[in-house]
C-alpha cells in the first residue's frame, strides 16, 4: 500500500490534468456537463493513479468511451498504447466470462431446485449473502466478472481509493469556497 | 470415534473436551475392552438370551430394532422404560450425524450408513443410560442392553484387534480412523466378508488425500470435516474470504460490531454507495462553484494542503478567529466556511502525523445521508447566490446528521433491512 498522501497528490495532479484536457476540448458547458466532466476525470485519475494494477481500475479505463471525451482523458493520462491494451484485454475477458456466467446461472438454477429441501434458515442466510454479493458486484467497477475472493479484495482497494478521492475533492471544494469571500 | 464421544463423556472423566484425540482414542479403546470383558461375563451367564440377540437380523435395523426391543421388553418389568430410553438414545442420532457425515457418505452408500450408525449407536449407548436408571431394574436392563450389544461389539473387537497396530496413530491420521470406524460399523451389517477390503480401500483413499493435501493448501481438516479436494478448496476459499472481510471490517466505519456476513456486506455496500454519492455530490459542488472549470489554485492548493506543518497552524488560526467572532449577522457566511474547514483541518493533521490517525479522521466525516444528494440536486437550478447558501446549509446539516446518526442508527437500520429481506424471502 502506498503512502496515502502521495496517492492523494498523484490523484490531484492527474485529475487537474484530465480537467485541462476536458476544458481544451469543449469550451462552454452547462452545470451538468461540468459535473460530468469533473466526475469522469476524477474517476479516470483515480484509476490511473492506481497504475491500472487492480481490476476495478482497468474496468474504469475500459469503460471510457470516445464520444463523451473520457477516452481522450484516459489517453492523456495513461498513454494511448496502455489504454488500447487494457480495452482489448478487458473486452476479451468480459465476453468470455459473460458466456460462462450464463451457463453458470443456468446450472445454478438447476441446483437450486434440489437445495429447496435444505434447512430453511441456512438457505435464507445463503440467499441473503448472495443477494448482497450481487449488489456489491454492481457497485464495484468490473465486479460482474470477478469471483468472490477477488471481489472482496477489489472492494478493499476501491474503498481506499474512493476515500482518497473524496478527501481530495472535499479539500478542493472547501478551498474553492474559501477563495471568494477572502478575495 | 465420533460416535464414541457421547458415551465417553459418561464413562470416562468429565474433562473429555480437553483431551487430545489420541487420548480420546486410547480411552475409548480401553472402554471397549472393558466392555468386551464385561460382555464375556454376561455371555457366560446369559447364553440363551445371547442366542436370541444374535438371531436378531442386523440388516433391517430401523424396522427390526424397535420391534425386537419391545418383544424383549414384554418379558420383563422395566422393558417399556428401557425401550423408551434406548429409543431416546437413538433419536438424537440424525442430528449428531449432520456435522460429520460427509466423509463417510463419500465412502458408504448413505442408507446403509444410516442404518449402521443407528445400530452402533444403540449398541454403545445403553451403558450411558444405565447409571441413570433405577437401582432395582439396573441389572435387568443391562442384560438386555448387552444382549443387543454383544454380537455387534464382538465383531467390532475382532476387526479392532486386526487393525490394532494402526491404532497407534497421531492426531493427523484421525480421518483414516473415522473411515476405519465407518467400515467397522459396516462390518456389523450383513457384509462381513467384504469389509476388510472396504476398510483398506477407504483408509487408502483417505490417506492419499492427506498426503496430497499439504503440498498446495495448508488447510487441515478438523474432526468431522470433509477431506476431499473439493471441500478442502472450498474451505480454503472461505477462509480467504473471511480474512479479507476482516480487513474490510477495519476499513469500513461502524462495521466492527456486526457479526455475520450478510450484515457486513450490507454495511460495506452502504459505505461504498455513500462514498460514490459523495463523489457525485462533490463534483456537482465543484461544477457549481467555478464555472470555467479551471482550478487555477492548483499550485497554491498543493502548497496549502499537502506540505504539512504550517497549514495546520494556519487552519487553527482561522478556527480561532471564527470562534472569536460574535456578530453572527455580518460574518455569517464567513463563519460557515470556517466551520467547514475545521474537519478538513483535522483531516490534514491526521495525514501529517500518522496513517493510523488518518484512518480515524477519515472515517468520521465521510458518511452522508441519502436525502442529502437528492435535495442538492433539486436545488441545483436555483440562482447561483442562493444556491451557495443552500448548499452550505445542507452541507452542515447533512454533515452533522451523518456524523451523529451514522454511528448510532446504522445498526437498527441494517437490522430492519434484513428483516424485510427475510420476509421477502419467505
UniProtKB/TrEMBL annotation, chain A:
It is found in: Nucleus. One of its GO terms (molecular function) is protein dimerization activity. InterPro entries: bHLH_AtIBH1-like, bHLH_dom, HLH_DNA-bd_sf, IBH1-like, IBH1_N. It comes from the Eukaryota. GO terms for cellular component: nucleus. Residues 113-162 form the BHLH domain. SUPFAM superfamilies: HLH, helix-loop-helix DNA-binding domain. Keywords: Nucleus, Transcription, Transcription regulation. GO terms for biological process: regulation of DNA-templated transcription. This is Transcription factor IBH1-like 1. It comes from Cucurbita maxima. The lineage of its organism: Eukaryota, Viridiplantae, Streptophyta, Embryophyta, Tracheophyta.
From TrEMBL, chain B:
InterPro entries: bHLH_dom, bHLH_ZIP_TF, HLH_DNA-bd_sf. Residues 116-213 are annotated as: Disordered. Residues 225-275 form the BHLH domain. The lineage of its organism: Eukaryota, Viridiplantae, Streptophyta, Embryophyta, Tracheophyta. Its main location: nucleus. This is Transcription factor bHLH63-like. Residues 182-200 have a biased composition (Low complexity). It comes from the Eukaryota. It is found in: Nucleus. Keywords: Nucleus, Transcription, Transcription regulation. Residues 116-125 have a biased composition (Polar residues). One of its GO terms (cellular component) is nucleus. The gene is LOC111469692. Residues 154-164 have a biased composition (Basic and acidic residues). Pfam families: HLH. The keyword Nucleotide-binding does not apply. The keyword Transferase does not apply. It comes from Cucurbita maxima (Pumpkin). GO terms for molecular function: DNA-binding transcription factor activity; protein dimerization activity. Residues 165-174 have a biased composition (Acidic residues).
